[in-house]
Amino acid sequence: MKTELENALLYGIVDRGYVDENDVESAARSLISGGADVIQLRAKGCDEDEILEMARQLVLICREAEVPFIVNDFPEIAKQVKADGIHVGQDDGSINDVRSIVGDEMIIGRSTHSLEQAEQALLDGFDYIGFGPLFPTPTKKGRAGIGMENVSLVQDKIGSKIPVFCIGGITRKNIETVAQAGAKRFVIVSDLLTAESIEQATASAKNIITNF
Ligand code: TZP
Ligand code: MG
User: Which atom of ligand 1 lies closest to the CA of 188?
Assistant: First the structure.
C-alpha cells in the first residue's frame, strides 16, 4: 500500500463530524468511487469501541478497492484492524512510540503546521505529512490558517522525499489556486462530505487535480 500512497493525489477523510454513524460505509464508498486515493477514518469524540467497529467496516471496503486505509489518532485500533496506516498529530507522541505499537510495515503520517515541522517529520522518518491548515476551517476549529506561502517550498524540499498532502479549507472552488501555489496532493474534508453527492464532488475535485 506504500506504492498506492506514493501515487495518491486526493486524500479523503470519513469525518464523523460530518458523517452520521449509519452513513460511514456509504460515505467511504462514495469517496472511493469518486476517485479518492486514500481514506482516513477521523472520529473525534467518539468512543473507542465505536471507532474500532467503524474501522473494521472501512478496512474491508478499502481493501477491496485497493485504497490505503488510515486510522486517525489510535495506533492500537489501526494495529488491531490491520489498517494500512495511522495518522498522528504533533501532540500524539514520537514516531518511535507509534512504531512500537503498529510495527515496521504500517504507514505513519504526521500533521504539520509549519516548514520546520514538515522538515522535522521527514527527519523523524514519517511516511507522509499533512501540511496545513492552509485556511481556517470549521473542521479544525481554533487553529489559524498558515496560508500558502510555504506550500511550494515544502512541496519541493519534503515532497520530493515523501508525499505532502495540503489540507485545511481546500474546496473545489479554490483547489486550482492551491495547485498554482505549488501543491500536488490534497486533502478535502467538508467540501466533499457536505456536498449533495459525495461521489460527484469527489470526482470533480479529482478531475481538477489531474488536469491541472
Ligand atoms: N488538519 C488540518 S486542517 C484539517 C485537519 C484534519 C481539517 C480539514 O478539513 P476541511 O473541511 O477540508 O477544511
Ligand atoms: Mg491527532
Answer: 12
Neighbours of 172 (CB within 10 A): 16
40 lines ligand 1 (CB under 6 A): no
Closest C-alpha to 187, from 1, 15, 3, 2? 15
Active site residue 143: no
Mean pLDDT for 159-181 is 98
> Which CA distances in Å does 40 have to 18, 31, 117, 180?
13, 11, 21, 26
**pTM of the shown model:** 0.98
d(CA 178, CA 170): 8
Q: Which of 42, 110, 185, 206 is catalytic?
A: 42
Secondary structure E strands in 58-157: 69-72, 85-88, 107-112, 128-131
Ligand 1 binding pocket includes 39 (Cβ within 6 Å): no
Question: Confidence class of residue 47 from pLDDT cuts 50, 70 and 90?
Answer: very high
Whole-number Cα distances in Å, 94 to 53, 109, 112: 26, 11, 13
Note if 111 is an active site residue: yes
- State the sign of the Cα–Cα–Cα–Cα dihedral 45, 201, 167, 111: positive
Tell me, what's the pLDDT at 2? 85
